[in-house]
Design a protein that fits this description.
alpha/beta; Isoleucyl-tRNA Synthetase, Domain 1; OB fold (Dihydrolipoamide Acetyltransferase, E2P); seven-stranded parallel beta sheet; six-stranded antiparallel beta sheet; 22 helices; 19% strand; binds 5'-O-[(L-methionyl)-sulphamoyl]adenosine
């Protein structure tokens, strides 16, 4: 075993369902945990939910249920998503569990007894959304400096943690521990924040105003401030004050992942709390950037929040994990678009990685199915082997420096070197010419290197990389990055490869297909121009046409399909007992309001389909010319469901 690694995610509020931001941090933590496990580290991965506070109380009130009931219902969504995403967390903590609440209470009592917490009158401003107090000078244009919302004036007695007394210590600690807050520019941001005098932290809320929280052990009129409670999860979950041996085994955390918006709570509140408790600091707090929709901040009000479930439906769990890890440079913001996801999927995974596997499997099967023993390597083999060696050492390096995207890019560079190698060697010609000696070397080199690359990508795409290794005849062998680094790889020669379905079949973007069914895709038209087909082949008989049942339909409901910016979800009246659901790719041309009430023309006997998770029965007709698209409608009033022919 090389070392220990404890990784945490922020614990997520249960006021809403999980979105791509939550999925990202959790996948990132999972990938880091899998990498460390694969390198032989004693690894522990914690995630969970933040269940107290105003946000949860408000959300529960809106649904007319108790906060606990609300938390119990919402937490399942997170747990189910993590299961679906193959997340390998060792523990999941909920802040409403006794094991957490009891530790929080003990900490509060201890700090109170030691004079680290005191009672005082608070006069100032309060932001309900952020659940934070501000002084007059903190406000920006009279509004919350963090979220820009209105703040309310407040005067009340509260309990305060003596955070201010740790200000100088914290500044020194950050300066003398350059890895403590990462990336470095976030450490500077914190130091900038610490240039102003640090106030003491209000850690209580009067029950009269907010009752959903952990009661202060020394004053039952108050509950604990949600952040003070929540931050403690990182230690309450691993045995603090309960099991010294377990705690010593895990703490200090190796990496505490957060999003950039919760930097101050983690780089100022948390370290000073730990200092007051006499607990060691985590080794690093790493703030990642935000996923934007295109170039715009994701927000519920803009309706552009990406739902992870939709993306899993589109490209599968592993490819979604791959995209998130490969696309975002840790620390910076990144843009999420469906197009970028499909582009990367089709190029990196379908064309490069999937293609290399299918080439070696097909050629090996043709040669009998066993990975042959190689002959002497030539310059070509050495070049490909060296690219894979570089990927192995590069991945370790990038991981240590939190440059995951670069580590993945190094693996893909090696995959491309593999495809180039195959093209240069042309093993199909070797097979044709019975040049078995060279053919064996090529097949062996590709199989052995591909297996090493799969081990490197396994933390990112555990399912697909296991399939890849199985296809190369690895059976149940578990090869780790530790093995690769130690040059400890069993010889694959003699293993039987297995025929497999394409690992990453190319995906054609359904939303790119023209809405008008009769308009042919551009590509096909070009192909036709190159090889003109006799015109007669395009003609159909009247019987064939009669198979298509066209009908009028009235749009009775229309809305955008969540997570699909080109699709509208319609309900159409076709003169049947119930309106039908229909998904149409017209959102770029018609708003839901514009299409509502129109009498359109549909193909009514099309087989039902599920499009992006939504049922669709029928297809509307539209005419497309260049960038213009117009719905086919009828000339004057006619009832819905009228037959067209
Ligand atoms: N409950 C607090 C954390 C307490 S930790 C002791 C919280 N919860 S949250 O559910 O609102 O947010 C959790 C994380 O999701 C934050 O790290 C936040 O940065 C992250 N994200 C929210 N939207 C995001 C994106 N669009 N992109 C990436 N991550 C973002 O804050």
């Amino acid at each position: 075993m090389s070392g220990k690694f404890y990784v945490t995610t922020p614990i997520y509020y249960v006021n809403d369902r999980p979105h791509i931001g939550h999925a990202y941090t959790t996948i990132l933590a999972d990938v880091l945990a899998c990498f460390h496990r694969s390198m032989g580290d004693d690894t522990y991965f914690l995630t969970g939910t933040d269940e107290h506070g105003q946000k949860v109380e408000n959300a529960a009130a809106k649904n007319g249920i108790s906060p606990q009931q609300h938390a119990d219902e919402t937490v399942v969504r997170f747990q189910e998503l993590w299961k679906k995403l193959g997340i390998t967390n060792n523990d999941f903590i909920r802040t409403t569990e006794d094991r957490h609440k009891d530790v929080v209470k003990e900490i509060l009592q201890d700090l109170y007894d030691r004079g680290e917490i005191y009672k005082a009158e608070y006069t100032g401003w309060y932001c309900v959304g952020c659940e934070r107090y501000f002084t007059e000078k903190d406000l920006v244009d009279g509004k919350c400096p963090d979220c820009g919302r209105e703040v309310s004036a407040l005067k009340e007695s509260n309990y305060f943690f003596r955070m201010s007394k740790y200000q100088e210590w914290l500044i020194d600690y950050i300066k003398s521990h350059p890895d403590f807050i990462q990336p470095a520019f976030r450490a500077n941001e914190t130091l900038g924040f610490l240039k102003q005098p640090l106030a003491d932290l209000c850690i209580s809320r009067p029950k009269a105003r907010l009752s959903w929280g952990i009661e202060l052990p020394f004053d039952s009129d108050y509950v604990c401030y949600v952040w003070f409670d929540a931050l403690i999860n990182y230690i309450s979950a691993v045995g603090y004050r309960r099991d010294d041996a377990a705690f010593a085994r895990r703490w200090p955390a190796g990496c505490q992942l957060i999003g950039k918006d919760i930097l101050t709570t983690h780089s100022v509140y948390w370290p000073t709390m730990l200092k007051a408790m006499n607990v060691e600091m985590p080794k690093s707090i790493f703030a990642h950037g935000w996923w934007l929709t295109g170039n715009t901040k994701m927000s519920k009000s803009l309706g552009n929040v990406v739902n992870p479930m939709d993306m899993i439906g589109l490209v599968g769990v592993d490819a979604f994990r791959y995209f998130l890890m490969a696309e975002m440079t840790l620390g910076n913001d990144a843009s999420f678009t469906r197009e970028a996801l499909l582009r990367r999927y089709n190029s990196d995974l379908a064309n490069d990685l999937g293609n290399l596997l299918s080439r070696v499997v097909k050629l090996t099967l043709r040669a009998g199915g066993a990975i042959p023993a190689p002959g002497e390597p030539t310059g070509n083999e050495e070049e490909f082997n060296a690219a894979v060696d570089t990927a192995v050492s590069g991945m370790k390096n990038c991981l240590e420096n939190m440059k995951l995207d670069q580590g993945i890019a190094a693996v893909l560079t090696a995959v491309r070197a593999g495809n180039r190698y195959v093209e240069q060697c042309a093993p199909w010609a070797m097979a044709k010419n019975n040049d078995t000696a060279h053919l064996n070397t090529v097949l062996y080199t590709v199989a052995a290197n591909l297996r090493r690359l799969a081990v490197l990508l396994a933390p990112v795409m555990p399912g697909k990389m296991a399939e890849l290794q199985k296809a190369l005849g690895s059976g149940d062998e578990v090869l780790t990055i530790g093995d690769l680094l130690a040059g400890n790889c069993p010889d694959p020669a003699g293993r039987m490869v297995q025929e497999v379905a394409p690992l990453f079949p190319r995906i054609q973007d359904e939303e790119e297909k023209p809405a008008a069914p009769c308009a042919k895709p551009e590509k096909k038209e070009k192909a036709k121009a190159e090889v003109p087909a006799p015109e007669v082949a395009e003609l159909i008989t009247i019987d064939q046409f009669c198979k298509v049942k066209l009908k009028t339909a009235k749009v009775v409901a229309a809305e955008k399909l969540e997570g699909a910016d080109k699709l509208l979800k319609l309900k159409i009246d076709v003169g049947e007992a119930e309106p039908r659901p229909l998904v149409a790719g017209v959102a770029k041309y018609y708003t839901p309001e514009e299409i509502l009430g129109k009498t359109i023309v549909i193909v009514s006997n099309l087989q039902p389909a599920k499009i992006r998770g939504a049922e669709s029965r029928g297809m509307l007709l539209a005419a497309k010319a260049g960038k213009e698209l117009r719905l086919v409608t009828v000339d004057g009033d006619i009832p819905a469901g009228a037959e067209i022919g």
